[in-house]
Amino acid sequence: MKHIGVENEFELASPYHTDELNKQIIKLYIGNMSLILELKKIKRNFLRRRKFKSLTNALGSDILKSKDFRMNNIKECFKNRRIATPDTNIIDRVMASYNKAKSNQKSFSSAYQVGNEWLPIYERHMGDVIKALGSSDAAATKTIYENFMREDCSVGLHGLPIDMKEAYFSGNISNLNSDIHLHDSIYRYSHWLNLTENKYSLKDLQMPDYGNPYGYFVNNEFIRVGAEYLHYYASRIQELIQEEKGRKVVVELGGGYGGLGYFLTRMESDLCYIDFDLPENMALTAYYLLSSFPGKKILLYGEDEFNEQSSSNYDIIIMPNFELPKLASNIADLVFNSYSLAEMSTDTISTYIPTLKEACKKHFFHVNHTQISYSLKADDFGIEDNEFSLITKKPALWNMGRDVNMDEFEFLYTRTR
Questions:
Q1: For a 10 Å CB count at each end of the chain, is N or C smaller?
Q2: 3 state DSSP class of 107
């Protein structure tokens, strides 16, 4: 009598049948994963559409009906604007400074290491640029930096809080994502106009195209995304330091890719801009500002001793965060920070704030979250005391075009003694 069950079991266990079974399992798994990913995408778009509808209901339809919104071509907003690095020596300088900073960073406390909100960004997005810089691969570094506005190395420094690569940089931009980008952009431009009381023209928002920027158009003029925000705070800083005599010094903690530094340097002829940041962000700032200002004297970490005379000898100084304690007392006419303090650990904030206050001669100006924070909220940074008084605290409404529940405020403190 034939034992069918046993024979079938042996047949299924044979290499041929095992391979076929594995292929079917893999095919089924891939099919299910594709379905799961598609369902997640549908859910994500549904939630995004619902949020955008509630946003436009809250703010009204003026932006959607405006000429600036209707006349924008989304493909033009995201078209390739890549331009070459103006001098190959820039890449060499950036890599040398970065590697020296990384080597020395290890000997400093946890307050000067990557942490809190930036740790997952580094783990998920910074691998390629860290590898390129760390191995002194000039070609790879150049390729990344010439496209940095669309590369992972600038995640968290600009753009909407969504997957920009999938939603925009792929070239397949849905009508919903087009509306979200343009609504946010035109809102920010309108907010800039209101805050500056029409004192400036569109030409004042122009920035060099290094990094392959995306943005939007007003009256057929391309505006790099975020330029209005950067220009406003640079112009506000210029107003605050205008009465100071002689060469002016502005210190920024966390300069992004160098946008604020660009506008400040362009606006003020006799100024030293000093930026402190994590080595990876420091390197990106160095690339943008070196490319934008070939005629300026720019000091990178490791190229010369950083001391109290440096601000007299250089127009721009870009240092890793662990060089902060070298700042001389009362050297800065103004200290500025945009968002990153609220993204740091309590230990890091309590390390940075006393150092920055000691260096600050007049104004301590920052924009940060008051509710959403990974550690201390902006009200609790510990800036106000018997030496610094809070002069103004007001909502920073830049992100209302994307989130009516935004919690950002700008704080201006002035030294009183």
A1: N
A2: coil
Contact 233, 192 (CB under 8 A): no
* Nearest alpha carbon to residue 169 among 69, 63, 158: 158
For residue 220, what are the contacts with CB-CB under 8 A and spacing of at least 6? none
CA–CA dist 352, 330 (Å, integer): 15
Task: Give the pLDDT confidence score for residue 46 in this predicted structure.
Answer: 81
| pLDDT score for 115 | 84
Q: How far apart are CA 30 and CA 382, in angstroms?
A: 53
Could you give phi then psi for residue 122, rounded to 5 degrees? -65, -45
Beta strands in 119-240 (DSSP E): 215-218, 221-224
Q: Which amino acid is at 89?
A: N
Report how far residue 287's alpha carbon sits from residue 98's, in angstroms, rounded to the nearest whole number.
11
Give Cα separations from 398 to 113, 148, 164, 230, 237 (angstroms): 29, 23, 19, 11, 17
118 CB contacts (<8 Å, ≥6 apart)? 156, 278, 343
Which CATH superfamily includes the segment(s) 241-415?
Answer: Vaccinia Virus protein VP39 (3.40.50.150)
Taking the C-alpha atoms of residue 208 and residue 86, their distance in angstroms, rounded to an integer, is 11
